What we know:
Layout: H1 5-14, H2 21-42, H3 73-78, E1 82-84, E2 87-90, E3 92-93, E4 96-97
Antiparallel strand pairs: 1-2, 3-4
Amino acid sequence: MALNITDIKRIAHLARLEINEQEAAATLTKLSGILGLIEQMQAIDTTGITPMSHSQDVVQRLREDVVTETNQREAFQKIAPVLGNGSAKQAVDGGLYLVPQVIE
């Protein structure tokens, strides 16, 4: 795909970029090089080659999925704020925190 200065200026306008003639010429050279490289890569026959997720065969070491912390819900909910409106009851019900309704 061949680009010209008009294409570069149109792309810059769509991207809301202000570029002068020198910047447009430099951008034209860079984008033409990138598009040329893409054309070279697309010209290569890749039939029979399986896609790779990574360029190297690497495996990430994972730790065992084991519970290491104890359940502290009761301790955290003991310090929950009170409901307010003169009530001394904590804003907790059924193991869940109660919050004010924000959407009607």
